[in-house]
Structures are given as structure tokens and as C-alpha cells.
Write a structure and sequence with these properties.
Helix content is 39%, strand content 13%. By secondary structure, it is α/β, with parallel strands linked by helices. Strands 1-5-6-7 form a four-stranded parallel sheet, with helices on both faces. A three-stranded antiparallel sheet has the order 2-3-4. β5, α7 and β6 form a beta-alpha-beta unit. The chain is globular.
């Protein structure tokens, strides 16, 4: 009963107070943004949320989906190569899951799984992916990873070692040797970030999106 009540309160907050807060915050985001034509490549829905708040065209295929951390880092190591290949529908179960899901999954080169969480059909997902990957600006690239979806210490270190200037790793845990870390302390007791981190922009307490994109950090 307590869990249901908490969810109801959160939903009321999201549709009232938070909605008004978002309008004001997004207005100032858009007014202060200097950088244009940037591509945000994210391991989950963060890219879509950030583009939405900034009122910017999606110059990235990583919208309304998620990619498990090992696949994501592997893709980043040779991004242009993987973007040159087609994504095909995965007919079998994901290598990360032992059950079927109610959303389409794609795979690139039989290596990189793309979980199209917010798409009804694979055809729709593939069409959006292909259209958006053509817009990637490789000379103005920004990358985000979160501690979810099979994100191990080994994968985190691989990500941190990538030769990508503008990259951030959002985590509930503190990793002293990870240069790209954005430590989200309020989530420490949970162990990992959750869905509300994206939906309610939990990163805003620890990270200035516009300064990052403007290269002001």
C-alpha cells in the first residue's frame, strides 16, 4: 500500500510542480546554450531527455532506447564503423536476459545489442535509428554512461580510458580513479541509479548540462 501511494504522489508531482519547474529550467537552458550541432551518444534515454530539454534536433540515434554497458563501450571504441553497419532484428533472447521482452531488440554485426525500449515495432525503431545516425556530428561528440545495465568496474574503466574528450559517467557509487565520474551521492543507498534519475533529471543536482555542452567546465 505504501509503495502504491508513493508512486501516486510522485506521478502527481511530475504532472504538476515538476512540469512547471521543467518549463522554467528549459527556458534558461535554451537561452544559455552556445554550442550547436552537437551529438549526444548515451547508453540509455538520457540523450533524448537532454535534447528535449534543450529544444534541439536529435543528432544521435540513441533516443528512447538503452544499450548494456559492455556493448555500449564496445560500440564507442569504433563508433563510425558500427554506425556504417545495418541493425537487424534479434529473433532470439538477449544475451543479457533469460526471458523475452515486450519491445524490439536490434543487433549490429552480431555484437552490439540495441534495446528499443520505447518503440512498438522493430521496423519503426530501425527507421528512426538509421535516420538519426546519419546526423551524428563526430567532431562535436558528447557521451554519457550510467551505472545501470551490466555496468561492471571493468567496463567503467574501459569507458574512462576512451579517447573521447567529452564523456561523463553517472554513478551512485564513488570511484576515486575514474576521471569521468559524476558521483550522484543521493543514490548511494540504492546502489545504482534508477529510472527517476532520467525522468526527473536527477543528474542536474551534480552536473551542469549547458556548461558541459558549451565546454565551460
Amino acid at each position: 500500500m505504501k509503495c502504491v501511494l508513493t508512486k501516486i504522489i510522485k506521478r502527481i508531482y511530475i504532472t504538476t510542480i515538476y512540469k512547471l519547474y521543467r518549463i522554467v529550467t528549459n527556458y534558461y537552458y535554451r537561452k544559455r546554450l552556445k554550442n550547436r550541432n552537437f551529438s549526444i551518444i548515451s547508453s540509455n534515454c538520457l540523450a533524448g531527455v537532454m535534447y528535449h530539454d534543450l529544444g534541439h534536433e536529435f543528432l544521435s540515434p540513441t533516443i528512447n532506447l538503452f544499450i548494456h554497458a559492455p556493448c555500449f563501450v564496445k560500440m564507442l571504441k569504433n563508433l563510425e564503423f558500427y554506425m556504417s553497419l545495418d541493425v537487424i532484428e534479434l529473433k532470439s533472447n538477449s544475451k543479457y536476459l533469460n526471458h523475452k521482452v515486450n519491445y524490439p531488440i536490434g543487433v549490429i554485426n552480431n555484437e552490439i545489442e540495441i534495446h528499443f525500449l520505447h518503440y512498438n515495432t522493430f521496423e519503426e525503431a530501425r527507421s528512426k535509428w538509421n535516420a538519426r545516425k546519419k546526423r551524428i556530428n563526430y567532431s562535436n561528440l558528447f557521451v554519457t554512461l550510467t551505472d545501470q545495465d551490466a555496468c561492471t568496474p571493468e567496463v567503467i574503466q574501459e569507458f574512462d580510458n576512451l579517447k573521447i574528450k567529452n564523456k561523463v559517467f553517472f554513478s551512485a557509487q564513488f570511484y576515486p580513479n575514474v576521471q569521468s565520474l559524476i558521483w550522484c551521492k543521493n543514490y548511494s543507498k540504492k546502489g545504482r541509479l534508477d529510472a527517476y534519475f532520467t525522468e526527473l533529471r536527477g543528474y542536474e543536482k551534480y552536473f551542469n548540462l549547458v556548461k558541459w555542452l558549451n565546454n565551460e567546465n
